Amino acid sequence: MKKKSVPQYSFESYRPVHRQITQQGEFGYAAVDPSKYIAGFEAYSKNGIRPAFGPVKVNAYRVGFTTCGSVEVDLGLDTFIHHKGIITITAPGSIFSYRNASADYAGYYCLFEGTFLEPLLRNLDTAFPFFNAEGISSFQLSDTELDKFVKLMWEIDGEIKTDQSDKRQAVQHYLYLMLIEAKRCYERQIPQPLTAEPHHLVAVYNKLVSQHFLEKRNVADYADMMNVTPNHLNKVIKEHTSQTASSKISEMLLLEAKVRLNYTKLSVAELAYDLGFSEPSAFNRFFKKHTSITPLEYRTSA
Q1: Does 3.30.1360.120 match the CATH number of domain 194-301?
Q2: How far apart are CA 186 and CA 116, in angstroms?
Q3: For residues 19 and 30, is the Cβ–Cβ distance under 8 A?
Q4: pTM for this structure?
Q5: HTH araC/xylS-type domain: from which residue to which, for each copy (predicted)?
Q6: pLDDT in tens, 100-133
């Protein structure tokens, strides 16, 4: 059976998923007429973001940071509190969820297609470490660094709201500068190689599983990618997460199943084969084991 992928959201179709679209604001695309939108790019403040959504999978790069308050975030297999100064930078295909935003939660984020920065560089994944398979997607900004990012976002906002010539090129350069600043912050605090410390090995494993779980279901495959033995990898994962390495793969598969149940019209049987199960009954057993309900019951209640 030919595999069918999760729908790759256009910005327009994805907007109602993460935004309360009736709510207007003073920043970015929430404050301008669609005629001023720049193709392949969007920018928003956290004002107007839905207080909870996901798991969702987006076919766009994303840069987001918090200036006040907090929110719980699931990013792939990682769960953390997004508070002041935390920045998260993700590549297309990342699965994430938001929930329990505090009343004072505030910040900014932008989304952009992979081709948006092509006039300036052609391979984001090699240019910036947080996009690499071994990179860390979330890290802390100092107050001074956070101020720089806020100023760059408002420069982008100013360009969006104007009708001046070359505003697309201006936004491209501000975004590129933002990624360069993020790279400098990253290199200041993230040790290399990442696998030198056990907790970094866990982070790398989580990210690799998030990217390759559909085709790689064995712990040995990831151990080989990370140049460690399966026994060592299992031991470190168990010690630092209280989960087995194989359970992490199942957790990611469950997240993918939830996304597809929520955002596709494929039948449960089609999803089962698409996700690599030998038959629909095996998928049903797997899903019910981890959620206590069937895939169909989950889809109905979502």
Answers
A1: no
A2: 22
A3: yes
A4: 0.81
A5: 203-301
A6: 999 999 999 999 998 999 889 878 888 999 988 7
Q: How far is CA 33 from the centre of its chain?
A: 27
* Token code pair at residue 11: 């910005």
Domain 11-189, CATH: 2.60.120.280
* Pairing mode of beta strands 61-68, 86-90: antiparallel
Q: What are phi and psi of 223, to 5 degrees?
A: -60, -40
**DSSP 8-state symbol, 45:** E
For range 23-32, the mean pLDDT: 86
Tokens of 60: 């766009």
CATH fold match for the domains 11-189 and 194-301: no
Report whether pLDDT(24) > 70: yes
Evaluate whether 63 touches 87 at the Cβ level (below 8 Å): yes
Confidence at residue 7, expressed as pLDDT on a 0 to 100 scale: 44
Question: What are the Cα distances from residue 8, in Å, to 58, 76, 92, 96, 108?
Answer: 7, 17, 9, 15, 23
Distance CA 218, CA 248 (A): 11
* Domain locations along the chain: 11-189, 194-301
- What are the distances in angstroms from CA 172 to CA 5, 152, 154? 30, 11, 14
